[in-house]
Structure to design on (225 residues):
């Protein structure tokens, strides 16, 4: 299993960002993808999940209205869009594959640093 | 949302000590509790799932226990390689939540 995320970005306050997560080494549609983030020096914060098979999603209440998770099954890629960025959104963003047995994140992307600064 | 409260926030122990971290849920989550280890500068790693099952390759010095609302992660015989921040996470609901983390250091 390999999850490769897009590169670091710097964004202005109010802008939007998209982070992609390219999956390989397994059947993409068989496992949920979760998105999490970690602000500098802070803990892990769960953002939401997508079922790559159906496209169904669920979002953490903190991000409702600002986040959209999508997937492209032909490209075996999941994407996270976050809008109306503020400096509080500066963080490393992770995608992760949820294990069917563990119901936890078994495999992680390498992380993508998003910096929001004017 | 299910709130998870970890304690302590940080601890320092000697090599060889037994260390216990607690995670308390705001409601019963049965045994749907996972533990992660995040070493400095690294991606988190799943250590224990369903409260007490060790992920493949995790040393037997790690153990988990609990059900309902109270859970523990124990490291027996603390080693320098165990220096990390440990997080609990619940998957009882489809809206996941994490504890705030416990930083473990060597005294």
């Amino acid at each position: 299993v390999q999850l490769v995320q897009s590169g670091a970005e710097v964004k202005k306050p109010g802008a939007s960002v998209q982070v992609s997560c390219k999956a390989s080494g397994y059947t993409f549609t068989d496992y949920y993808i979760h998105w999490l983030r970690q602000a500098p020096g802070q803990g892990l914060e769960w953002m939401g999940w997508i079922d790559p098979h159906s496209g169904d999603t669920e979002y953490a209440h903190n991000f409702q209205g600002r986040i959209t998770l999508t997937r492209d099954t032909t490209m075996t890629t999941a994407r996270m869009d976050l809008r109306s960025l503020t400096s509080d959104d500066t963080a490393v963003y992770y995608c992760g594959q949820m294990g069917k047995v563990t119901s936890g994140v078994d495999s992680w992307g390498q992380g993508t640093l998003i910096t929001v600064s004017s | 949302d299910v709130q998870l409260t970890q304690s302590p926030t940080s601890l320092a122990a000697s090599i060889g000590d037994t260390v216990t971290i607690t995670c308390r849920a705001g409601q019963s989550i049965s045994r749907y509790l996972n533990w992660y280890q995040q070493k400095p500068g690294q991606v988190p790693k799943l250590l224990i799932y369903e409260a007490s099952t060790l992920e493949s390759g995790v040393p037997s010095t790690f153990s988990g226990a609990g059900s309902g609302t109270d859970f523990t992660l124990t490291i027996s015989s603390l080693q320098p390689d165990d220096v990390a921040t440990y997080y609990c996470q619940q998957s009882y609901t489809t809206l996941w939540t994490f504890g705030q983390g416990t930083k473990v250091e060597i005294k």
Notes: Chain B has a mean pLDDT of 97. Chain B touches chain A at residues 1, 32, 34, 36, 38, 43-46, 49-50, 53, 55, 85, 87, 89, 91, 94-101 (CB under 8 Å). The CA atoms of residues 25 and 69 of chain B lie 5 Å apart. The radius of gyration of chain B is 13 Å.
